[in-house]
Every structure is written in C-alpha cells, then in structure tokens.
Write a structure and sequence with these properties.
Elements lengths: L2 H5 L8 H5 L72 H18 L4 H42 L2 E3 L7 H4 L17 E3 H5 L6 H29 L8 H8 L10 H16 L7 H16 L3 H4 L2 H20 L2 H12 L5 H21 L23 H31 L6 H16 L3 H4 L2 H9 L33 H24 L9 H25 L4 H4 L11 H17 L3 H11 L5 H18 L4 H9 L16 H4 L12 E2 L3 E2 H10 L4 E5 L7 E6 H14 L8 E3 L15 E2 L10 E3 L4 H11 L3 E6 L2 E7 H11 L11
Parallel strand pairs: 3-5, 7-8, 9-10
Antiparallel strand pairs: 1-2, 4-7, 5-6, 10-11
Helix pairs in contact: 4-9, 4-10, 4-12, 4-14, 7-9, 7-16, 8-25, 9-10, 10-12, 12-13, 12-14, 13-14, 13-23, 15-19, 15-20, 15-22, 15-24, 15-25, 16-19, 18-20, 19-20, 20-22, 22-24, 23-24
Family: Belongs to the chloride channel (TC 2.A.49) family. ClC-3/CLCN3 subfamily.
Subcellular location: Cell membrane; Early endosome membrane; Late endosome membrane; Lysosome membrane
Keywords: Antiport, ATP-binding, CBS domain, Cell membrane, Chloride, Endosome, Glycoprotein, Ion transport, Lysosome, Membrane, Nucleotide-binding, Repeat, Transmembrane, Transmembrane helix, Transport
C-alpha cells in the first residue's frame, strides 16, 4: 500500500459511514506504547492524513481536568467512531490517559453508594490481574501444544510409530525392551519410511527412499504453511517482534493481533518448524502470546475501551511469550522491558512477572519434552571455568558480533530486493524453493537433518560416561570399573574429528540458509537459528581448547590449573557462550539475554563468561551499525518508530523541520468564532490534513487550540441529525460563550468540546535535539511551532523521521511505508 494512499485520505461529505466504521472491534488493536501524563495532542501524522480521533479534554499545568470545559462532554453521547482509531494510525496517549482517569473517578465516586457498585469497583481493580492470568494460561497451553505437535511432525519426516501413531520417535521407544545403549533410538515399534515401503532398513535403496520421503514431507509442510498464511492470515508470517515493538510504541496495525492471526500462526508455526527450515518458534511465540493478551483484553471494559491500557496487557503478554519460549520467566520480563516495550510502569512490571510465572507453570505442568523442563536443551554444568578461558569466550563474542552485523546487512539487502523486484510477488514459490534447497542439503548431514533444538541440546551437553554422541567418541583412558560424573580431558577419537568436519559444514549451511529464510511468508523466528550457529562455533572452539590443554598441559597458561587427568575444559559451556554471543550480535540484547541463558543452565557461576561474550558481541556489532535485526526490519517496513537507542546529534532548529516550508502553501487553520459550517466543510474538503490548529483570527495568528479532522466530521454529522436549526450558514465557534450575532442569524454550532486547549508547543528556535527527545519521552505525535505566541507551523513524528533520515544521508521518502 502506497504512502500516498495511506496518509492522504481526503474527506468527502458522504464518507461519514466509512470514517465511523472503525469500532473497538477485536481486530482493531493496535498500537501501543506509553501513556504519558503530559500536555500532548493529537495526531501522529497531522499533515500526512493520519485521521484519528481528537482529544476532548483540557488540562491544567498539573495535569488535572479543567472543570469549566467539561472533559469528555462530547463523548457522553453515543456517537459512533469517537474514541477509536483507523488502521495505520497512532493512538493519542494523553486522550486515553484522561479517559482512564475519568473512568476511575466515576468508579471511586460510586463505590460507596451500594454493594453492587462496590463489587464493580473490586472487579475493575482486579481486572488487570485477571487478564494477565488468562493470557499466561493461554500462552502456556498453546506453547505446550506447539512443542508436542512440532516434535511429532518433525519425526514424521523420518518414520512412524506403528504401535501408537501419535507418538514421536522417542516416545515410541520408551516402552520397548529391545533397545540397546548404542542404538537407543531404534526399536521394533518405530519404522522408517524405507522399512514400510521397501521392507528393508539398510542399503542404498532404503537411504534414497528415506531421502525422498524427507524432502516430500518438508515440502508438504512448507507448502501447507505458506498457503494457510497467504489465504487466511497474511499477518501470521515472520517473527512478529518488529511489528509488536511498533504497536507498543503507539502505532495501530489492525488485525495483527486478532483471532484469525492467532489461529493460523499457531498452526503454521508447527508446520514451519516441522518442515526443517532454518527458523525457530521462539519469536513467533511472543506474537502468539500478544494475540492472547489482545483477545482477552476485550473481556474487560477497562482494557477494551482504552487502547493505551491495552498496551500494558501486551507488554505482560510479550514477557509470557519469552517465558514459555525459553523457560525463563525472569528473562521474559527483562526482554519485555529491554527489547519491546515503549512504556513500562511499575504495575506492568509486576503483572508481566505474574503472567510469565503463570505461563511457565502451565508449560511445566504439560511437560511437552518429557524431561520435567520447560525447554529441550536445558543443561547443567558442574565444572568451574578458569580465568584463561575468558580469552576464547571473548573471541566467541567477536564472532557473534561479526555474525550479527553480517546477517543484518545481508538479510535486509535480500528483503529489500524481495520488496523491489518481481520475486516478492511469488511468496509460495519462494517458500517452496527455500524448503527444497534446505531439505536436499540438510539430509546427508546428521547435524542439519535433526531438529535445531535437538542439535543445540547435543552441542550444549557435556560428555559423560552415558553419552553416545559422536562428539563424545574420545579415546577412553579411564578405569572401566570406576564411573564418575566428571570425565577427565581425553584425546579426541576419529568420531570427534568426523563430527568436527560435519559441524563445520553445518555452520556454513546454517549461516547461508538463515539469511534467506528469515522474512519469508511463514512464521519464522531468529532465536534458535542464531543460537545454533553460535553453539556450533562454540563447540568447535571448545573441543580445540580442550585438545590444546590435553596435549600441552605443561604450557604456562594451563600448568597452574589444568593437571593431567583432570576435567579442565567443558566444550558444552563454550557452545552455550557462543550461542548467547551470536544471539546478542543479531538482536543486540544484553541484560535480558544473560538472564535467559542463566535460567537455561541454572549455573550462577557462568554469568561472567556470558556477560563478557555478550558485551563483546554488542560492541563489535555496534561498530558496524547500531541497529539490531528488529529495528532494521522496522525501518525497512517504514513503520513510524522512534528508537530510543538512536542518538540525534545534529544542530538543526525546529523552524528548519516544521511544515509548511517556505515554498509550500500556508498552514490550514480554523478561527475560533468567525467561520460558518460551509467554510469549515470547504477547508475539510479541500485539504487532506488530519487536524487543524484553531487561532483567534487570521490577523493575529494567536493559538487557541487544536481540533482533529475526524472529530470535526463526526460533530458536523451529529449536529445535523440531532440539533434543529443548524444550517450551512450557521456560525461555528470554539469559545466558551457564543459570539454576538444578529437576531435573524441561524442557530450557531458550538464545537468547544472537541477542541484540545493544551496542544504541545515549542518555539521556532528550539533545537531539534530537544524536540526529538521530547517526542521519544512523551510519546508525542505532533507539536505546534510558535513565535512569540503566534502560530508558525507543525512538526509531526513523520517529519522527525524524515529529517533524521535526511541527516543520515538517506532518501527521506524511501523510509515511509515502502
């Protein structure tokens, strides 16, 4: 959809029904961010046609309601369309905050009148806790369902359990008495496709048949996933985190968190993960949890009728999503705080913590992996790390930062090419092509054939006496009669060297395929592929350091702490540090990522290596560009998102950025008491602006307030229907008292109730550095520019984004809704 279509919608006299049709329907959700208790006003895109509801309130310096202007008088009448927002618009934070305060005052004033009113006040007070509880319950249940279904369908590519079709491979062999220690995954109940079709389990023919069936199921799952997304819910593709960040910053993407998106995303996420594509389910689980939070918020009027309050629920829901994705409730809360939320008050922190707790409890009760853990790759280490190991840990951090910078640049370049060429018009073919290449190349290598979560689990796991992985095929020099938990460092056997080559090939494969997979039209997360790349690199480095310590234990770096026969190096720990470093390099998360990985391992003593690697990764990545992958995709999609992490250091003034410019037509304004209904309609018909400053007169240009186009339109239609005597020649006034008129004049129309008497203003000499800071911290959508009290122009959020792009030597028009 072109930006001109989105942001230059004119007003037509017969278009009232279309304007008022945007109701508080479940699909309308949509932008979120911070409710700011300051003088703000109106529309994020005042001059770009962002038609939103206006502010019907007046504020004094203390933020209290001015009783003389009857806050929300206009909203007392049941006028359709007032208080809602159109698609691709920004909510008015101050308006929503004032509506919530008025609602709260009414409840408090009535609660002593009767037992029923007191009960209603209790229900209102507890509704926040109820909605996050329901969100946590639904998120945990859906995550458990997705985990179980994805495991079963992933194993379906290799075979089927004849004794119970609903069992995956591991569950099928649980009850078998015919498994051996070396071949614990083989049992008579589980049949590969070659055994079922050809009747033989070994040989070239069976290998080719299994190969063909693997590709067939991968293509079938991918094709079904992309078709469901394309037909039923286009918003179900991708990870969802860039859009959720934008929504939480105050933007509306209608239908993005609706029931159809939830249903299709849940189903197609299972199919996409089972297809073997280089993607994960962790990012999309945040989107699923936010869909649950949005849907449940409509059960409570406190949240269904207030878009800003609804954003608080979405912040808690995103914490619940990460909680079930990684089994890290505290990490989920910090992820919501650090990465996605724009506004995060203290009560939202508590509710986010509670939602994450409930979601984790439900997932633990379901126990989808059968290991009494919330994630498949939970591990515990018992060997301490040594100071010398900080060197390879920091090197892994450097690798993670380089990988993150490389991935962001190449993936964004590929996504931009997809948008700008004919290739992007065929999403089904693209998914089929990527799935086919992935399946064909992945099958021969056991490390790419298996589920990525299982690969990470194998890479994280330390080699003990009960491990049968090829990564643990060392030359055994232990006393066979003595079984210990800590196996001493040993020389690597042929199996380890073979596994190292296979892991190196898997690393190259994962790097290439992840670049082309992230952004295709199926649910696709980035956490698991990034962690897999880092875990592979970390495991290779860990084995190399382990062998170095074994063969050169007399070197000064090993001599003090690594004795012969001791268990000095833990390769699994290196895999864990590498995974955290690569994920940090891509997303630029820091604190929340350390806590998530800490909760995964349960090892408090490994926080320092994790912090060293993740901070190194961030520093190296920031050297090539400060944007994480989610911010880069936000900019690619042209969402009006002001990133708080981005610095503005240019020395421009508000007068240089405001509109109208010198070569543009004058600013469209309204006068406070000298216009007729016909003149007002003419202004609306002849312009596409979203709102209009109200001034004393054309001569004085003294600012009175601000009125939104949407509110004016609704007020005019409502006056024609409900008030007698309103004619085209009726005088319109925004003042408290009607102007003196001749006796034979038609009845005047008072519109003071839709006027915002406290629009945010700056002077023309205000530095843009301060203006940008104000927009970020107050969540403004626009502010008016004055000189000695006289109106000069307006600055909107999009003006600021265009100016920042221009200062960065980018085309300012190219970033707006490509």
């Amino acid at each position: 959809m072109e930006s001109e279509q989105l942001f230059h919608r004119g007003y037509y006299r017969n278009s009232y029904n279309s304007i008022t049709s945007a109701s508080s329907d479940e699909e309308l959700l949509d932008g979120a961010g911070g409710i700011m208790d300051f003088h703000t006003s109106e529309d994020d895109n005042l001059l770009d046609g962002d038609v939103s509801s206006g502010t019907n309130y007046t504020m004094t310096n203390g933020g209290n309601i001015n009783s003389s202007t009857h806050l929300l008088d206009f909203l007392d009448e049941p006028i359709p369309g007032v208080g809602t927002y159109d698609d691709f618009h920004t909510i008015d934070w101050v308006r929503e905050k004032c509506k919530d305060r008025e609602r709260h005052r009414k409840i408090n004033s009535k609660k002593k009148e009767s037992a029923w009113e007191f009960t209603k006040s209790l229900y209102d007070a507890w509704s926040g806790w109820l909605v996050v509880t329901l969100t946590g319950l639904a998120s945990g249940a859906l995550a458990g369902l997705i985990d179980i279904a994805a495991d079963w369908m992933n194993d379906l590519k290799e075979g089927i359990c004849l004794s119970a079709l609903w069992f995956n491979h591991e569950q099928c062999c649980w009850g078998s008495n015919e498994t051996t220690f070396e071949e614990r995954d083989k049992c008579p109940q589980w049949k590969s496709w070659a055994e079922l079709i050809l009747g033989q389990a070994e040989g070239p023919g069976s290998y080719i048949m299994n190969y063909i069936m693997y590709i067939y199921w991968a293509l079938a799952f991918a094709f079904l996933a992309v078709c469901l997304v394309k037909v039923f819910a286009p918003y179900a593709c991708g990870s969802g985190i860039p859009e959720i960040k934008t929504i939480l910053s105050g933007f509306i993407i209608r239908g993005y968190l609706g029931k159809w998106t939830l249903m299709i995303k849940t189903i197609t996420l299972v199919l996409a993960v089972a297809s073997g594509l280089s993607l994960g389910k962790e990012g999309p689980l945040v989107h699923v949890a936010c869909c649950c939070g949005n849907i449940f918020s409509y059960l409570f009027p406190k949240y269904s009728k207030n878009e800003a309050k609804k954003r608080e629920v979405l912040s808690a829901a995103s914490a619940a999503g990460v909680s079930v994705a990684f089994g890290a409730p505290i990490g989920g809360v910090l992820f919501s705080l650090e990465e996605v939320s724009y506004y995060f008050p203290l009560k939202t922190l508590w509710r986010s913590f509670f939602a994450a707790l409930v979601a984790a409890f439900v997932l633990r009760s379901i126990n989808p992996f059968g290991n009494s853990r919330l994630v498949l790759f939970y591990v515990e280490y018992h060997t301490p790390w040594y100071l010398f190991e900080l060197i390879p840990f920091i090197l892994l951090g450097v690798f993670g930062g380089l990988w993150g910078a490389f991935f962001i640049r190449t993936n964004i370049a590929w996504c931009r090419r997809r948008k700008s060429t004919r290739f992007g018009k065929y999403p089904v073919l693209e998914v089929i092509a990527v799935a086919a290449i992935t399946a064909v190349v992945a099958f021969p290598n056991p490390y790419t054939r298996q589920n990525t979560s299982e690969l990470i689990k194998e890479l994280f796991t330390d080699c003990g006496p009960l491990e049968s992985s090829a990564l643990c095929q060392y030359h055994n020099e232990m006393n066979g009669s003595k079984v210990v938990d800590d196996v001493p460092d040993r020389p690597a056997g042929p199996g380890v060297y073979s596994a190292m080559w296979q892991l190196s090939l898997a690393l190259i494969f994962k790097i290439i395929m992840t670049i082309f997979t992230f952004g295709i039209k199926v649910p696709s997360g980035l956490f698991i592929p990034s962690m897999a790349i880092g875990a592979i690199a970390g495991r290779i480095v860990g084995i190399a350091v382990e062998q170095l310590a074994y063969y050169h234990h007399d070197w000064f770096v090993f001599k003090e702490w690594c004795e012969v026969g001791a268990d000095c190096i833990t390769p699994g720990l290196y895999a864990m540090v590498g995974a955290a470093a690569c994920l940090g390099g891509v997303t630029r998360m820091t604190v929340s990522l350390v806590v998530i990985v800490f909760e995964l391992t349960g090892g408090l003593e490994y926080i320092v290596p994790l912090m060293a690697a993740i901070m190194t990764s961030k520093w190296v990545g920031d050297a090539f560009g400060r944007e994480g992958i989610y911010e880069a995709h936000i900019r690619l999609n042209g969402y009006p998102f002001l990133d708080a992490k981005e610095e503005f250091t240019h020395t421009t003034l508000a007068s240089e950025v405001m509109r109208p410019r010198r070569n543009e037509s004058p600013l469209a304004v309204l006068t406070q008491d000298s216009m007729t209904v016909e003149e007002l309609e003419a202004v609306i018909n002849e312009t596409s602006y979203n709102g209009f400053p109200v001034i004393v007169s054309k001569e004085s240009q003294r600012l009175v307030g601000f009125a939104l186009r949407r509110d004016i339109t609704i007020a005019l239609e409502n006056a024609r229907r409900k008030q007698e005597g309103i004619m085209r020649t009726s005088r319109v006034y925004f003042t408290q008292h009607a102007p003196s008129l001749p006796a034979d004049s038609p009845r005047p129309l008072k519109l003071r109730s839709i006027l915002d008497m406290s629009p945010f203003t700056v002077t023309d000499h205000t530095p843009m550095e301060i203006v940008v800071d104000i927009f970020r911290k107050l969540g403004l959508r626009q502010c008016l520019v004055t000189h000695n009290g006289r109106l000069l122009g307006v600055i909107t959020k999009k003006d600021i984004l265009r100016h920042m792009a221009q200062m960065a030597n980018l085309d300012p028009e190219s970033i707006m809704f490509n």
